[in-house]
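During the practical work, I selected for study one protein's amino acid sequence and its backbone structure tokens, as given directly below:
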Amino acid sequence: MAEAPGFLFLNANTPWVYALAQALSAHRSTTALRLYDWPNYRRLKPQWPETDSLTRRRMIVMPPGYAGRLEALFGVPMPLVFAGERGRLRRATGGAEPWVIACYPYLARWTRHVPGERLIYYNLDEYTFYEPHRSHLIRSLERELVERSALTLCLSVEMVRRLRERHPDRAARIQHFPLGMVESFLNEAPDDLPIVNSIGYVGNLTNRVDWDFFHAVARRTPELRYAVVGKLDALAVGDDNGVWRARRAETLALDNVDFLGSVPQAAVPNHYHRYAVNWMPYDVSHGFNVAACPTKIMDAIASGRPFLSTDLPESRHYPNHIALATSAEEAAAKLRELAAKSASHDVAAQVDFARGHSWAHRADTLIAMTNAANRG
């Protein structure tokens, strides 16, 4: 008798896709493939985050252009590789056809042999932003995946909206599946008081931050101290005329702004925990921000501290745990209010909410969704 079907991830290169694979492996046979070209493999020197894992893991390294100009050369070998991994999972589960999770549009060409009723398109972003010159091809391949897949899962609510608008006949199959909470970000000491009147920003310091907005808010609240944690040399994304860098320098030089630079990844959760308020002053006109599910949303919620964001679609999804501001004046007023009430803020309740959105819970949700798709 066949067991429950396993899961095959075709490109588990990002930490969150791999986190989902790891969580699923506690319940189902799961394989995670990572695909790299030679230059990126040498540059990144990728390693799996732990030595032992229930997940079968395999790295595949190919020449540059394997998913672009040289794609035709891999049109036969890559489907064969995927078919081999599917066969392994079938044998491990007594013949059950596995679910195949494709995270990028280019994988459409290599998954045409996969039964549509066992295919999941996991949309992580608006992919046309990365290669605008290939937008037409990317949309065409994405259309194929959405039309064929039993499920389309989107990290962000905005991409759910866009894909449902583009594919109205598949709307019911397109679902929100946001990032899960990473356990290390949970604030297990909710009674520890934060630094008084401190506002923390942890993350990238590129043009995704609205530096004009940050500067205006900090100038309006001299009684608050702003801690900024992140790398100055991170690459900008999207249109970049460089003007924002001057405003960033002015902001970091303000008397009530402390630039702490980058910190080891293990220390990042402590920064979220220590500030009276965390905030995300992202530029609401930046395409990446609008379409994204920022990792800092669940990281900040897990801290248990009050959290303020600019008015982004994904932030609106958590009205009980994220305050929104649409202007510098409103942000200044709300930061003052949140900082003043931080000592009485119900940290434990917010942490409990985050605990219910762990990657283990995301895995349970996905299993339930695939079971429902089977019945449908």
Q: What stands out?
A: Residues 7-180+358-375 form a domain with the Rossmann fold fold (CATH 3.40.50.2000). The chain has two domains: 7-180+358-375, 183-354.
